[in-house]
Design brief:
Helix content is 55%, strand content 0%. The protein is mainly α. The longest helix is centred in the middle third of the chain and has 21 residues, at 47-67. The protein starts with a helix and ends in a 25-residue tail after the last helix.
Length: 92
């Protein structure tokens, strides 16, 4: 997924983190969505990113899972908790 993210970012002349952050990639790896609807449930994926990227990323996930005999479309995978500054512990 990181390689695909890098390729997409290079095509768009933008930093890879603007395509998807690492947390989104980890959630994709947990959920392994192979449909547009499942992809939309991934952390950090909104309507725009789903429209722009779901075909390529779900195809890559599908191919990888088939080659490695892994289950797909794991709907029970929880979304990660937000890591905003307000939710981080304060270290004194």
């Amino acid at each position: 997924l990181r390689g695909l993210r890098r390729d997409v970012a290079a095509e768009r002349n933008s930093p890879a983190y603007l395509v998807f952050g690492d947390e989104s990639l980890r959630d994709m790896a947990r959920r392994r969505p192979t449909t547009a609807a499942g992809f939309r449930e991934v952390y950090g994926v909104g309507d725009r990113k789903a429209a722009d990227f779901s075909d390529r990323f779900t195809a890559a996930i599908r191919d990888y899972c088939q080659a490695n005999e892994l289950a797909i479309d794991l709907v029970d995978a929880p979304k990660p908790a937000s890591t905003t500054a307000a939710s981080r512990p304060v270290l004194n």
